[in-house]
Amino acid sequence: KEKHKILHRLLQNSTSPVEL
Amino acid sequence: PQLADQKTLARQIYEAYLKNFSMNKAKARTILTGKTSNPPFVIHDMETLQLAEQTLVAKMVGSAGALKDREAEVRIFHCCQCTSVETVTELTEFAKSVPGFSSLDLNDQVTLLKYGVYEALFAMLASSMNKDGLLVAYGSGFITREFLKSLRRPFSDMMEPKFQFAMKFNALELDDSDLALFVAAIICCGDRPGLVNVSHIEVMQESIVHILQLHLLANHPDDAFLFPKLLQKLADLRQLVTEHAQLVQEIKKTEDTSLHPLLQEIYRDMY
């Protein structure tokens, strides 16, 4: 789970922006 | 009733596609065929690249930021990463809108995205390409294929395989309603490494692929072999992503460039 924490976050929270 | 259900699912997937992707084939073709009042700014050499960076992609390059004094190849590579991250974010939202996806095991959702996003990205990238170049910066710019080829290696090897794929893929003349189902079929794929609940995903995959087949027969009655041709494209995309991942690893090893954490997650232990 730790290996893919940004993907996890994107899947669980649509409002969370990904920092470019 | 079954046919009605299938049509509903096809419509839901198409609506999710239109809603979540900032660029689609219809928009891209309007720009590429010169049917807009604002034609894209053409990037064909170092000078036009710098001009574009000052106006179109100032935010991405960070005109006052760390990349300002880096060579063009590194700046372009960085821009490609920014676009990829945005598309991965859009693809994640699209996947969540595909009926059934969100009720899958969360780790399986991650696995499907990890292996599917680049295949989907390259399939959709074809919409923004013609034989001469590629739309960038939401269609406000057009970077020429020759300019990308003229960069120094290994960066010059990055886009040419995608153009070659895109020219053959675009010859199939898919529209956005076809592409929506094709992208959903790429993501809902039961043979990705490490899936836990394969049968659950296979059920979803079968219904999407079946709807894709029916949709293609109705939407392209003159091309009876379009469905098997598209199944072949799934295999071609897998190969394209494998080669792309190898090239990115090489760039990471030999060049002084950073890789976005989201993309690192996707590439790590991929193939």
Instruction: Tell me the structural class of chain A.
Output: mainly alpha
Q: What summary fits the major beta sheet of chain B?
A: 4 strands, mixed
End-to-end separation of chain B in angstroms reads 42 Å
**Rg of Cα set of chain B:** 19 Å
Overall morphology of chain A? elongated
Biggest sheet strand order of chain B reads 1-4-3-2
Q: Return residue spans of chain B where pLDDT drops below 50 for at least 5 consecutive residues.
A: none
Oligomer: heterodimer
Quick take:
By secondary structure, chain A is mostly helical.
Distinctive features:
heterodimer; A: 20 residues; mainly alpha; 1 helix; 40% helix; B: 271 residues; 4-stranded mixed sheet
Could you characterize the architecture of this molecule?
The complex is a heterodimer of chains A (20) and B (271). Chain A is mainly alpha-helical and 20 residues long. Helix content of chain A is 40%, strand content 0%. The radius of gyration of chain A is 8 Å and the shape is elongated. Chain B is 64% helix and 5% strand. Chain B has helices spanning 2-20, 25-32, 46-55, 58-61, 72-97, 106-125, 145-150, 160-170, 176-187, 198-219, 226-254, 261-267, and strands spanning 41-43, 129-130, 133-136, 141-144. Chain B has a 4-stranded mixed beta sheet. Chain B is globular and about 60 Å long. Chain B starts with a helix and ends with a helix. Chain A binds chain B through residues 1, 3-8, 10-12, 14, 18, 20, and chain B through 60, 82, 85-86, 88-89, 92-93, 96, 106-107, 109-110, 113-114, 260-262, 265-266, 268-269.
Question: Secondary structure elements and their pairing?
Answer:
The complex is a heterodimer of chains A (20) and B (271).
Chain A: H1 5-12
Chain B: H1 2-20, H2 25-32, E1 41-43, H3 46-55, H4 58-61, H5 72-97, H6 106-125, E2 129-130, E3 133-136, E4 141-144, H7 145-150, H8 160-170, H9 176-187, H10 198-219, H11 226-254, H12 261-267
Helix pairs in contact in B: 1-5, 1-9, 1-10, 5-6, 6-9, 6-11, 8-11, 9-10
